[in-house]
Give the backbone structure.
Amino acid sequence: MKTQVIQGYNGIPAGVFIPIEDWENIKKHYPNIENVGQELPLWQKDILEIRLLDVSNPEKTESISELFNVLDTDDN
């Protein structure tokens, strides 16, 4: 892929040019690529907020080794 970095007037990179053939190939392999920059729906943000709060609370988290122990002793 032959890309070109586009710089602003101050010399700081401002964008990237990707040849259309390469862009079409990327879209073929990653069909949702054009949705990457879209805002998450509120319900997804709410779920993420709850999960982040749980992770930041050490009383609600356990080590990965504890998870493996539980899985190893599971009778299923």
About this structure: The radius of gyration is 22 Å.
